[in-house]
């Protein structure tokens, strides 16, 4: 498992306790603060970010982060923002994002740039990120969006659940095991990607795409179907390989997992929630290399894509 130390050994974690809230319309103050935090990254971490940026590695987990928050109980119902006394974990996410691109979000996910992932009572078997008992489908985030999908996904674990294990599959491993015919088919516009269920809308496009000479993947195991029998068979081959090639990355409290969303697919094993305030809790965020204002929330409305900056 790829893991290392994010901060220098002399880092004073009192600096994290001063982090401003990210749950506001203007995140400029958070990003200014994140610049201060960023300067305290270790040489090892800076090297990891360079490797992530050039695609030499597709994911990395920074562990044992010096965060000392008084974390409230994990809720049972979903809320857009849970009050905490400090925003240390969010500050770590913001600082790391500056090394790779720009923080942005989807309105369908949250009204804030950093969103919460935890099991919600009544949604244990759902297909969403608030599910628990059901294994989360292999996917790349934002795969159906016609305008923008994250270059990186950041997942900060603030409360661990040992039974919930992250699963990751490298695109290069998939390509190395796919048949030549399947590989060629996955580069054609033969797949319907679900955009919304009400109204029902799909976007027909490839799963593999060449972008400036680099192969990228956009896929969601549960929300993509082939346009015909042949393309559906290709998906069966792809899905079968994902399970065989998946690498396990255990959750750890106070760890930051960064995934290259164009070069890897990720999932999560199922687990039984307790709903006692001690359930798994992760902070999620999206990063893009596209030139958009920091803090942009992207949403879908009818046939149009709207970008609304909040900074």
Can you walk me through this structure?
The structure is a single chain. This protein has a single domain (3-308), classed as Double-stranded beta-helix (4-Layer Sandwich), CATH 3.60.130.10. The chain is an alpha+beta fold. Helix content is 20%, strand content 29%. Strand 8 and strand 9 (200-205) form a beta hairpin. It has six helices and 18 strands. It starts with a strand and ends with a strand. Helix 1 (28-38) crosses helix 3 (88-97). The strands form four sheets. Strands 1, 2, 3, 4, 6, 14, 16, 17 and 18 form a nine-stranded mixed beta sheet that branches. The protein has a four-stranded antiparallel beta sheet with strand order 5-15-7-13. Strands 9-8-12 form a three-stranded antiparallel beta sheet. Mean pLDDT is 92; it is low at 301-311.
Keywords:
311 residues; alpha+beta; Double-stranded beta-helix; nine-stranded mixed β-sheet; four-stranded antiparallel β-sheet; 6 helices
Spell out the blueprint of helices and strands:
Layout: E1 3-4, H1 28-38, H2 43-53, E2 59-62, H3 88-97, E3 102-106, E4 115-117, E5 136-139, E6 152-159, E7 165-170, H4 171-177, H5 180-185, E8 191-197, E9 200-205, E10 208-211, E11 214-217, E12 224-226, H6 229-245, E13 247-250, E14 255-260, E15 264-268, E16 281-288, E17 296-301, E18 304-308
Parallel strand pairs: 1-2, 3-17
Antiparallel strand pairs: 2-14, 3-16, 4-16, 5-15, 6-14, 6-16, 7-13, 7-15, 8-9, 8-12, 10-11, 17-18
Helix pairs in contact: 1-3
């Amino acid at each position: 498992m790829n893991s290392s130390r994010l901060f220098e050994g002399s880092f004073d974690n009192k600096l994290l306790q001063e982090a401003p809230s990210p749950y506001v319309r203007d995140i400029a103050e958070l990003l200014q603060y994140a610049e201060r935090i960023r300067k305290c990254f270790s040489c090892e971490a800076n090297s990891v970010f360079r490797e992530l940026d050039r695609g030499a590695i597709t994911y990395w987990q920074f562990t044992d982060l010096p965060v000392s928050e008084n974390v409230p109980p994990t809720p049972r119902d979903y809320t857009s923002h849970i009050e905490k006394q400090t925003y240390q974990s969010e500050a770590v996410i913001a600082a790391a994002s500056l090394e790779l691109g720009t923080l942005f979000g989807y309105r369908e996910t949250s009204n804030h740039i950093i969103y919460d992932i935890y099991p919600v009572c009544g949604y244990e078997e759902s297909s969403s990120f608030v599910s628990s008992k059901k294994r989360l489908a292999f996917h790349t985030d934002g795969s159906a969006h016609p305008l923008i999908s994250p270059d990186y996904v950041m997942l900060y674990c603030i409360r661990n659940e040992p039974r919930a294990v992250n699963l990751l599959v490298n695109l290069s491993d998939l390509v190395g095991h796919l048949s030549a015919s399947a590989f060629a088919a996955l580069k054609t516009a033969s797949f319907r990607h679900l955009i919304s269920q009400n109204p029902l809308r799909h976007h027909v496009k490839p799963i593999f795409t060449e972008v400036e000479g680099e192969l990228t993947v956009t896929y969601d195991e549960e929300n993509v179907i082939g346009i015909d029998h042949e393309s559906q068979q290709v998906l069966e081959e792809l899905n079968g390989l994902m399970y065989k090639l998946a690498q396990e990355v255990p959750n750890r409290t106070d760890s930051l997992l960064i995934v290259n969303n164009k070069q890897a697919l990720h999932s999560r094993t199922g687990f039984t929630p307790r709903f006692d305030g001690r359930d798994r809790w992760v902070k999620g965020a999206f990063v893009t290399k596209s030139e958009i204002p920091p803090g942009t929330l992207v949403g879908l409305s009818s046939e149009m894509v709207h970008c609304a900056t909040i900074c």
